[in-house]
Amino acid sequence: MPVPDLVPLGEAARLTGRTPQAIKEMAEAGEVFAVHVSGHYYFDPDRLPERPALPEELQGELPELMTAQEVAHLFRVHPKTVSSWARQGKLTYIRTLGGHRRYTADDVHHLLNQQHHTEEEGRS
């Protein structure tokens, strides 16, 4: 009998669209087949649960997300300046599962246009 290729917890979470903690809890409850070796969980990708459907408000086209580096390049500023704008509320953001900020392209372009108009008014 062939041995299935097992994937680690993080990869199982990515494949199912769930958090690693949720997959681990499912494994501990016996809802998902997992092998626990030396403190690590491994999963058979063919036996993982289906990805849950996106909420209705997220179905369709998702916003393009940008990193602080990409936003900084557009504004010709340091990425730390972009983070400062986010803390000040000038630029909205979301957090990734890893805790990094991501900025929607629409919000970035709105701020860019707003800044451009402010600079033009200052020259008049």
TrEMBL record:
InterPro entries: BldC-like, DNA-bd_dom_put_sf, HTH_17, MerR-type_HTH_dom, SinI_DNA-bd. One of its GO terms (biological process) is regulation of DNA-templated transcription. Pfam families: HTH_17. Signal peptide: none annotated. Residues 65-124 form the HTH merR-type domain. It comes from the Bacteria. GO terms for molecular function: DNA binding. NCBIfam families: excise (TIGR01764), HTH_BldC (NF033787). This is Excisionase family DNA binding protein. It comes from Allonocardiopsis opalescens.
